[in-house]
Amino acid sequence: MSANEQAGVVVVGLGPGGEYVAGALAEAGLDVVGVEAELVGGECPYWGCVPSKMMIRAGNLLAEAGRVPALAGEAVVTPDWGRVAGRIRDEATDDWNDQVAADRLAAKGGRLVRGRGRLSGPRRVTVGDRTIEARRGVVLATGTRPRIPPVPGLEGTPYWTNRDAMAAKELPESMIVLGGGAIGVELAQAFARFTCVVTVIEGQGRLLPQEEPEAGELATEALRADGVTVLTGVRAQRISHDGTEFTVRVEGEEEPLRAERLLVATGRHTDLTALAVDTVGLDPMAGAVHTDGQMRAGEGLWAVGDITGRGAFTHVSMYQAQIAVRDILGRPGPDADYRALPRVTFTDPEIGAVGLTERQACERGLRVRTSVLPVASSTRGWIHGPGNEGFIKLVEDADRGVLIGATSAGPAGGEVLYGLNVAVHAEIPVDRLRHMIYTYPTFHRTVEAALGALR
Ligand SMILES: Cc1cc2nc3c(=O)[nH]c(=O)nc-3n(C[C@H](O)[C@H](O)[C@H](O)COP(=O)(O)OP(=O)(O)OC[C@H]3O[C@@H](n4cnc5c(N)ncnc54)[C@H](O)[C@@H]3O)c2cc1C
Ligand SMILES: NC(=O)c1ccc[n+]([C@@H]2O[C@H](COP(=O)([O-])OP(=O)(O)OC[C@H]3O[C@@H](n4cnc5c(N)ncnc54)[C@H](O)[C@@H]3O)[C@@H](O)[C@H]2O)c1
C-alpha cells in the first residue's frame, strides 16, 4: 500500500499522553498529525479523573457538613446530584465537546485527523482510506478500555462503565459496583454520599488489593461509614436485568443482590490487535506495548500512557510523554524511572502511596523495616476530630537505609504524600529525614513519628 500523505510524526490517540506529545512536537516545529477516534483529551477529562473528582469534591462537602454538629453547630444540607451533573457537563466536559482541545492543537501547529488509526507497517498509519507516512516515526498513545469480566448473563445487560457513571444526569436509587479498585471505591463513596444505596463486590480478599492491607481496611471502614455494603473475596456468579433492575447472584450469599444500576469497574485492557501492531513486528496478544527507557517500542515507534502497562495514571502518561518528546527531538535525558511511582485514591480519607508495598519489597528479597502510625495520634489529627482517620506507613530498605515505599492515608493524604514521594525518588537517607524540621501542627508530622518508629 502506498502512502498518500506525509507527516513528520503521527500520534495515534490524543489522551493526556498523546495530546502532550502532539502539541509539544508541533510547537517544536515538527509536522505532526494527531489521530483521534473520539475526543481530543481522552479518558481523563471527559470520563475519568476530572469528572470523578468533581463528584468526589461535592460528596466530600456533604460529608464535611455532616461533621459540623460535632464541632461547630448545626448544618442542614440537601444533596442535589443535578449540581454535580451540571458542573461536569458545563465546566469539565463542555457537554462532551472537544472543540477547545482540537483548537489548542491546531494553534500549536498540529493537524488533527479524526478517525480510528491503525499501523500498516513501520512508520505508517492508516485511518479509514488514508495512509499517512511518518518520516520520523509514530507514537502510540491509545490508552485502555474497561475490561468486562465474563460473568454469565452480564453481556447484553445495560450495565454501566465509568463513562455512563460520569454522564449520569440522575442519581440512581441503588447501585452495585463490581470491582473494589480505584474506580470502584471512589465512585461507591461519591454516589453513596448523595444517598444512592451502594454495594461493592470485590473478588480479592480486600478493597484496593494492589495497595497495603491497611489501605484496604481503611477504605472498607470509610465506605461502610457512608452506608456502603462491602463484600470482599467473593465473585458475582450470574447477572441479569429484567428491564427495571439488576439481579446479581453472589457466591456465599443466599439472597441475590438487586439494584437499579450495575457499575463494572474491574480493570482496564488495551486492544493491540485492532492497532495492528503485528505489522511492525510486535505481539498483538501482549497486554501492553513494551518500551525501553526512552519510550521506544521499535524503529521509529514510541508508546506512552496506559498502553505501556506501567501504571494507568494521567501523571504516568504525561511523564512518559515528556521523555518521548525529548527522544524524538534528539535531546538526551534520563530513562523513565518508576521506582517512585505515586498514586492517590481520592476517597475520604485520601489514600496516597508511592513505591513498593511491604509485600512487594519482601518479594524482591529485600530486608525491610516498617512502621505504621495513625494520623489521629498527631496533634493536627487530634485537633481535626471527625474525619481524621488515616495512617502513615513507611517501608525502608534496611540495608541501604532509604525509604522504598510509603502510604499516606488521611485528610489531604494525597498532598502529604509529596514529601514521601521526594524521599523515595531522591533516596534521601532515613537518618537525614529524621533530622529535619517538620512544621507544627501539620498532618505530615505523623511522618516524623513514623520515621522514629521504623523497626
Ligand atoms: C473513572 C476514572 C478515574 C480516573 N481517575 C484518575 C485520577 O484521579 N488520576 C490519574 O492519574 N488517573 C486517573 N484515571 C486514569 C487516567 O484517566 C488514565 O491513566 C489516562 O487517561 C491515560 O491517558 P492515555 O494518554 O494513556 O490514554 P487515554 O486517556 O485512554 O486516551 C487515549 C485516546 O486514544 C483514543 N484512541 C484509542 N484508540 C484509537 C485509535 N485506534 N485511533 C485513534 N484514537 C484512538 C481514545 O479515543 C482516547 O481519546 C482515571 C480513569 C478513570 C476511568
Ligand atoms: N485516583 C486515581 O488515580 C484513579 C482513579 C480511578 C482509576 N484509576 C486508574 O484506572 C485504572 C482502572 O481502574 P479500576 O478500578 O477499573 O481497576 P483496578 O485494577 O484498580 O481495580 C479493579 C478491581 O476489580 C477487581 N475485580 C476484577 N475482576 C473482578 C470480578 N469479576 N469480580 C469482582 N471484582 C473483580 C480486581 O480484583 C480489582 O481490585 C486503575 O488501574 C487506575 O490506575 C486511577
Automatic annotation (TrEMBL):
Concerning InterPro entries, the annotation shows: FAD/NAD-bd_sf, FAD/NAD-binding_dom, FAD/NAD-linked_Rdtase_dimer_sf, Pyr_nuc-diS_OxRdtase, Pyr_nucl-diS_OxRdtase_dimer
Record family assignment? Belongs to the class-I pyridine nucleotide-disulfide oxidoreductase family.
**Annotated ranges, domain Pyridine nucleotide-disulphide oxidoreductase dimerisation:** 342-448
Which domain of life does the protein's organism represent? Bacteria
Designated name of the protein: Pyridine nucleotide-disulfide oxidoreductase
Give the residue range of the signal peptide. Answer: none
Which Pfam family, just one, is annotated for this protein? Answer: Pyr_redox_dim
Domain FAD/NAD(P)-binding, chain residue ranges per copy: 9-321
Print the keywords alphabetically.
FAD, Flavoprotein
Organism source for this protein? Streptomyces alfalfae
Q: Which cofactors does it use?
A: FAD
